[in-house]
Amino acid sequence: MNLIRHKVLDLIRSEILSCTFQPGEELREADLADRYDVSKSPVREALQYLKFEGLVETEPRRGHRVTPISVSDAHDILDMREALELAATRKIAKDASDETLKGFDAWREADVSDIRAFASYNRAFHIVIAEASGNRRLLREVRRLLDAYERLCLVSLERLRDDQGDMREALSDHCVLIDSLQARDARAAARISERHLRRSRRQIIKGLENRPIVD
């Protein structure tokens, strides 16, 4: 895939994950080519690749659309996150360097007044946690899951945009998790991470209820 195709792929993927292109929205090759000032060829190739990633689906006689979000898929994503991130926190508490643990202090503050800003912070924080585990395969899978999770957040939390309590609660969980990791308390870190992820699950599923763009 050449540079233009890579660029188009990254642009479409980014706009899907940020919900600029909403779940279920039709994606016309001609419109996308005009949007990015390219020919249809790199757009078509990008859409096929995104179909492989599960972000785009093809409808008979209608073309492509952004894959809708389903509650069952949300549960699958959240199950995988819980399994991988619990493993990461246990490993970090036991094996991470003192310097790595000290570096987590940079993640004790975040903007809780803006959903998109907080979603970006949240994704970055959990990637830092996965990186600190030292397990490259785990990191790769967590990155992929967090791409899908961020889209869930942006769709579900739109209903809660006037309530900053959930974001403050999540930030508080992060700070307590950092405390337990810096204390090298693997059991407490896993317990806090599990509580955090399960609370997140309840909030996400609640936010997805009765959404017209959710299958």
TrEMBL record:
Residues 2-69 form the HTH gntR-type domain. InterPro entries: GntR_C (IPR011711), TF_FadR/GntR_C (IPR008920), Tscrpt_reg_HTH_GntR (IPR000524), WH-like_DNA-bd_sf (IPR036388), WH_DNA-bd_sf (IPR036390). One of its GO terms (molecular function) is DNA-binding transcription factor activity. PROSITE patterns: HTH_GNTR. Coiled coil: none annotated. Keywords: DNA-binding, Transcription, Transcription regulation. It holds the Pfam family GntR. PANTHER family: GNTR FAMILY REGULATORY PROTEIN, TRANSCRIPTIONAL REGULATOR, GNTR FAMILY. This is HTH-type transcriptional repressor CsiR. It comes from Roseisalinus antarcticus. The lineage of its organism: Bacteria, Pseudomonadati, Pseudomonadota, Alphaproteobacteria, Rhodobacterales. The gene is csiR_2.
